[in-house]
Amino acid sequence: MVLRKQEILAYCAAGVAFHMIASAFNFYYVKVFINHYHIEETWFQIAQTFHMVWTSVSNPLFAYIQDGSKLKISRTRRESILYCGPLFAFSFIVPWIPWGESSWLVGLHLIITFFLWDTMFTFIGLAVSSLFTEISRDTEDRIKLTRYAQMASILGGPSVMLLEFTSDSLHNFKAFQITSVCVAVCACSLFYYSGLNAHTEYDVKKIEKYELAKNSRVNVKKEPYTNQVCQIFYDRNFIAFIVSNFCHAFHKTFLNSFIAIVCDQLISEDDVPLSVRKLFYGGVSLMSTLVIITVTTFVSRYSYYYVIRSAFAYIVFAGIVMLHIGQDHPWCLMVFLLADNCASGTTFSLFNMPLADIADDNKSKYNRKHPISSTVFGISALLSKPAMSLSPMVTVSILNHYGYSELKNNTVEASHELKHAMFLLICLYPIAIGIVQLIAWSFFDIKQKTVQINVL
């Protein structure tokens, strides 16, 4: 299927909407529930544990629904986005409406938030990721899609910056709530446009097959879902990707959720004005996007395998350098965090390409007429998303051990030990994670295929 402008715009619209609300949710939910709602650590850990359990159910369930069921909302990727995109936008608003001050009520609020958010995040995320795989099988087309999607995400990237300035860094919570509703409405509109126009060759065949079976009342024999899952688990490339992606999800979640918390403690207003920090928080996503757009040129020339490996090597090197510089250089710390976010964002944006190649390789290996894209992306999410809960659980536990819980009411200042622990986390996380990723990524061997395609 020739990649047309309509498909590019539809995919970009879905990507912008997804990025617009996901980046804001990840940036604010920890800060809001800890600093604004004052959730107890016990309830925070319970909610995160529930999140991991529900993730283990939702990912394979929705992957099966999208790849194997005959429900109208999941017959095509386009219809999945059309019908469930508005629900995803609604789930973004839920955490910003307080339910009460009781500790159990705040804890229940976070649990329900995770349930609604992860349900829609998973369903729409699988649909958008599968759309990337199925719009085109050509590597250059996929690179082009990545580049255009990042260009378009510049429109959605500043959502954090917008929320920072309108709410005065959450000091005006009412303004934060109003702006969040506006962001959700914009995302809903973009999902609707994508749902109307995101057609793929596979979706056309899928609808024709469904209508034929419906009219003739013939049951089409389907391969057992357990067989598909086992085939994916036996794929060495998939295992290598999962280890790398799990570490990346842990690192990226830490950066998204704790960068504002850490900078507020390690960087004083005397060193860096608050207005500059607001610009920094909002500009991190934008700068990451610009870097990704630039990097896609190197992906065309050297393949995504080598670009991702270089990003892993960089975060190890940068972490060691920052550890040597020390925490008493706030501007160096901000540059380091900005570069670390850019490297992490670049890797995240390119991770759709190896998964798409894994889905294509699986289709060829087992002679399928249609790639099981949702199953591949769903199993990947199932194994990597627990890191998104583990990261805040581990980090909050470490910070509270050094007295962070005493800062909730702004009655005391952070101790030297707490600040030093925050600095060590900033440096040691990328060092340890990057080393594991480099080792795991060395076992990914579809790179040979990718290099060959890029050269032709």
Automatic annotation (TrEMBL):
Keywords: Membrane, Transmembrane, Transmembrane helix. It comes from Mytilus coruscus. InterPro entries: MFS_trans_sf, TMEM180. It comes from the Eukaryota. The chain crosses the membrane at residues 9-30, 42-65, 81-99, 105-133, 145-163, 175-196, 238-259, 279-299, 306-325, 331-355, 376-402, 422-444. This is Uncharacterized protein.
